[in-house]
């Protein structure tokens, strides 16, 4: 069995990000920048006032001195002349500083009386002026390629005068669940049957990772039906299957996909839940075969499918971040498989993060998974651990998954 780290590396090794597409800036939230976004202008585009007040020559300002008010410079309507000796121009935040002025006398430090302004507290040279290009200069990269665009980035790109941006195309992920026993949610359930929770759950995971899910009909437990439903996936960027990847008599995903060209890289990993994980390719399309038990399907989806979809989408950050916590209860020694234990999170009186594993870790218990706020990571052959000892966790409560 492969280690989790080796399996992750082999899955990610030959994934190529999707190509670029142009989208309106307003629709780019969460998309991955396909190229550097560089400023098309200086910001500010000229020296502007940082405060409401008066544009002055600092050398003219002394306590109790007076200046002649010769005009104003409202935002969008620059003063057309020049500030000469002993003169001042009324100015507002964001307005262009007139030629000749080198400081802003803020209105709190001045008294205006008709056409005269009296200085109470003089400004220093350059005070309260935002210089041209102070925020960014023309041709400066403001958003680097590979960044997932936030509202802040979109505001920055707009200020840099971009109406459209190049982003990575969302990866198309085909999802195929297998099993004679599964029925669509809401459909009649035959004796011995269950509802198909994997397909909608994995579709939500794909969306959360920035992909576009394509939910294929559920396949029966025959190699021919699996091959029939998976045929034509060449337009997808990734195929996810759920179920049928183990060694049972009716686990026929590998056999069915081999009929349409599957080459298998590996199909067992040293992980709990999720030992029967398959990886391979059908032509150019990577294939990831997840376990059929829904908890194992989602946990393996988080550990393996999420980084793969992020890689296809061009994310610079691919794997889930890990945090340090402390155990809220004792844990037994571990065997040769890495454990991903569903857990709740709380805070100790000193503010430390406390992770407490559920007593039952059955890989079919979705209710426990939905209540989980973290996965406690236990390496292979880990010795017994006591409450209060440090541990590593993957935070689920901070993910939109």
From TrEMBL:
Cellular component, GO annotation: cytosol
Cofactor: Mg(2+)
GO MF terms held by the record: metal ion binding; molybdopterin molybdotransferase activity
EC numbers on record: 2.10.1.1
Catalysed reactions, as listed in the record: adenylyl-molybdopterin + molybdate = Mo-molybdopterin + AMP + H(+)
Pathway: Cofactor biosynthesis; molybdopterin biosynthesis
Keyword Metal-binding assigned: yes
InterPro entries: MoaB/Mog-like_dom_sf, MoaB/Mog_dom, MoeA-like, MoeA_C_domain_IV, MoeA_C_domain_IV_sf, MoeA_linker/N, MoeA_linker/N_sf
SMART domains: MoCF_biosynth
One record GO biological process: Mo-molybdopterin cofactor biosynthetic process
Residue span(s) of domain MoaB/Mog: 174-311
Function: Catalyzes the insertion of molybdate into adenylated molybdopterin with the concomitant release of AMP.
Family, as annotated: Belongs to the MoeA family.
Name this polypeptide is given: Molybdopterin molybdenumtransferase
Native species: Gluconacetobacter asukensis
Classification of source organism: Bacteria, Pseudomonadati, Pseudomonadota, Alphaproteobacteria, Acetobacterales
């Amino acid at each position: 069995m492969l280690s989790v780290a080796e399996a992750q590396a082999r899955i990610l090794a030959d994934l190529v990000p999707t190509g670029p597409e142009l989208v309106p800036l307003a629709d780019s939230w969460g998309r991955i920048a396909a190229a550097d976004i560089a400023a098309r202008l200086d910001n500010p585009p000229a020296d502007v006032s940082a405060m409401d007040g008066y544009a002055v020559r600092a050398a003219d300002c002394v306590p109790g001195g007076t200046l002649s008010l010769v005009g104003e410079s409202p935002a969008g309507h620059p003063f057309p002349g020049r500030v000469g000796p002993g003169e001042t121009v009324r100015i507002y935040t964001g307005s262009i500083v007139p030629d000749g002025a080198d400081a802003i006398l803020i209105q709190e430090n001045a008294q205006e009386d008709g056409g005269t302004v009296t200085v109470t507290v003089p400004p220093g040279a350059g005070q309260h002026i935002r210089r041209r290009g102070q925020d960014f200069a023309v041709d400066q990269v403001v958003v680097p390629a590979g960044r997932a665009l936030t509202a802040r980035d979109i505001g920055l790109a707009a200020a840099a005068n971009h109406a459209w941006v190049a982003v990575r195309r969302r990866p198309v992920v085909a999802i195929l669940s297998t099993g004679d026993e599964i029925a669509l949610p809401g459909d009649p359930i035959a004796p011995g049957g269950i509802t198909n929770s994997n397909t909608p759950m994995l579709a939500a995971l794909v969306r959360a990772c920035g992909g576009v899910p394509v939910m294929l009909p559920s396949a029966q437990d025959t190699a021919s039906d699996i091959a029939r439903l998976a045929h034509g996936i060449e337009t997808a960027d990734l195929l996810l299957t759920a179920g049928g990847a183990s060694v049972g008599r009716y686990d026929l995903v590998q056999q069915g996909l081999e009929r349409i060209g599957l080459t298998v890289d590996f199909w067992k990993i040293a992980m709990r839940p999720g030992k029967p994980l398959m990886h391979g390719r059908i032509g150019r399309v990577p294939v990831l075969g997840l376990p059929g038990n829904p908890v194992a399907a989602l946990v393996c989806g988080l550990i393996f499918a999420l980084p793969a979809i992020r890689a296809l989408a061009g994310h610079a950050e691919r794997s889930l971040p890990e945090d340090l916590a402390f155990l809220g209860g004792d844990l037994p020694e571990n065997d040769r498989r890495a454990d991903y234990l569903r857990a709740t999170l709380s805070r100790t009186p000193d503010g430390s993060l406390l992770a407490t594993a559920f007593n039952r870790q059955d890989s079919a218990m979705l209710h426990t998974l939905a209540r989980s706020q973290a996965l406690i990571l236990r390496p292979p052959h880990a010795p017994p651990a006591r409450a209060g000892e440090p541990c590593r966790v993957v935070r689920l409560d901070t993910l939109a998954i």
